[in-house]
Amino acid sequence: MADLHFYFDPVCPFAWLTSRWVRTVAAQRAYDVDWRFISLRLLNAHVDYDAQFPPEYEAGHTAGLRLLRVAARTREEHGRAAVGTLYERLGERIHDTEPDRPGTAGERGTRGYLEPVLERAGLPADLAAALDDDRWDAVVRAETDEALALTGRDVGTPILHFEPPEGVAFFGPVISRVPPEDRAAELWDHVVGLARFPGFAELKRSLRERPQLVAAGVRPDEVGVQEDWHGGSRRMKR
Questions:
Q1: Is 107 exposed, middle or buried (CB count within 10 Å of its CB: 0-12, 13-18, 19+)?
Q2: Which of 9, 81, 98, 233 has the maximal Cβ count within 10 Å?
Q3: Report field, pTM of the whole predicted structure over 0.85
Q4: Using CA atoms, how far apart are residues 141 and 54, in angstroms rounded to an integer?
């Protein structure tokens, strides 16, 4: 059994930063991580994107759902470990390669974007056919519901479940920078220690640095400007 269930949407920059931190902690602590699915597009199915989100959010979240279809097929045909590899390669391509350009969010859900990622992950290109196969949505929806049952619905990505099935689960930790290796495990212990207290509910601030990612236009030696986020996103309305 895995030590940690990590529910991710590949297009979420904060989930990607947390995943990099978790991979460091997992290596230091010999944790086994099971990479699972949560879709921002399904989570926000009731939302009027045009009224509540900046431009391209709907296209980006839809691309995330399409990529999760591929991840679901990958797991069925190549095993759970292959999902971790695919997510790592997707995250590098989406978040660490080049600054986001207007009008490109939806491209992440296309074969032309995905097939080189599959090649770098050592996976067959025909997995990309799942992008358009909405039969996989049932798998993604079931795990999205599974994640939300652990935390409640007013959250975003990622959701972590440590020492399942009885262990603690929480949204986040949401970070804008990856902790250095020599502090990664220390910070992780603080998070888990707080989450294990039965009366703990929330520790939050909506002011966040823009994530320290190439795609966000923030170099590794820079600190991103602070922005006010609501409900896990840059919503224009509550």
A1: middle
A2: 9
A3: yes
A4: 24
Tokens of 100: 């986001």
Give the C-alpha separation, 172 to 156, whole Å. Answer: 8
Per-residue pLDDT tens for 169-214? 999 999 999 999 999 999 999 999 999 999 998 888 888 888 999 8
* DSSP-derived secondary structure letter, 9: -
DSSP string, 29-86: HT--EEEEE--HHHHTTTS-HHHHS-TTHHHHHHHHHHHHHHHHHHHHHH-HHHHHHH
**How distant is the alpha carbon of residue 210 from its chain centre?**
16
Residue 60 and residue 95 in contact, taking contact as beta carbons nearer than 8 Å: no
